[in-house]
Design brief:
With 223 residues, this protein is α+β, with helices and mostly antiparallel strands. It has 4 helices and 14 strands. The strands form 3 sheets. Strands 2, 3, 4, 5, 8, 9, 10, 11 and 12 form a 9-stranded mixed beta sheet that branches. Strands 1-14-13 form a 3-stranded antiparallel beta sheet. One of its GO terms (biological process) is pseudouridine synthesis.
Length: 223
């Protein structure tokens, strides 16, 4: 038996590395988070902002971060130009990148979010060119995928914020702030979502719960 994994939500500011050390003096998670034993579940680029999940569980970290489990991630991107329906259709169908065709995505144009904080430093505007806001939900984890997808359909990304990962979002979190997810929510997630999604997949770690604790079950041998 072991305790349920800890899970932490962090709103990563612009130009912070999603790691705890840096060899070149850049700001890291260590400058913002005092939570020994926690590790990021996936990365968010240095020049992107928004939600980063951290956990003390290698199994939960792998499930949240590894592309094969297809945990949805939603981004808000400020792009250069006025979005049109043709570009949105391309994003929804899949975009051809150098490393292959992306999976279909959820894509829609949205107004600039009213809750959005100012970026420091601000993006560089070109007065003659309008900008648009795109909400994009993907279930892969390719390097700089959202930026490459928007550029591939003719709309370079100027600012990128990750709003949510799975069921967790930035709601109520200002830049640089973090909070723990209550243990009961983590247990419910792993019970209802984790096992439903991949508990019978070959090599997927499995969990069972008893009286506020979590027990690692055997790996499935089904093919």
């Amino acid at each position: 038996m072991m305790h349920a994994p800890a899970l932490l939500l962090f709103n990563k500011p612009f130009q912070v590395l999603t790691q705890f050390t840096s060899s070149d003096g850049k700001s890291t998670l260590k400058d913002w988070i005092d939570a020994p034993g926690m590790r990021p579940a996936g990365r968010l680029d240095h020049d992107s902002e928004g939600l980063v999940l951290l956990t003390d569980s290698g199994r939960l970290q792998a499930y949240l971060a590894e592309p094969r489990w297809k945990v949805p991630k939603t981004y808000l991107a400020q792009v250069e130009g006025e979005l049109n329906e043709a570009a949105l259709r391309q994003l929804r169908a899949g975009v051809r990148l150098k490393d292959g065709l992306t999976l279909p995505a959820l894509a829609e144009q949205v107004p600039e979010p009213a809750w959005l904080w100012p970026r420091d430093p601000p993006i560089r505007h070109r007065k003659a060119i309008a900008t648009s806001w795109l909400r994009l939900t993907i279930s892969e984890g390719r390097n700089r995928q959202v930026r490459r997808m928007s550029a591939a359909v003719g709309y370079p990304t100027l600012r990128l914020i990750r709003w949510s990962v799975g069921q967790w979002s930035l709601d109520g979190l200002s830049p640089g702030r973090w909070r723990h997810v209550p243990e009961i929510q983590v247990m419910r997630f792993m019970d209802e979502r984790y096992e439903a999604a991949c508990g019978t997949a070959r090599g997927a770690p499995r969990f069972r719960y008893r009286s506020g604790a979590v027990r690692a079950g055997p790996r499935s041998t089904r093919r």
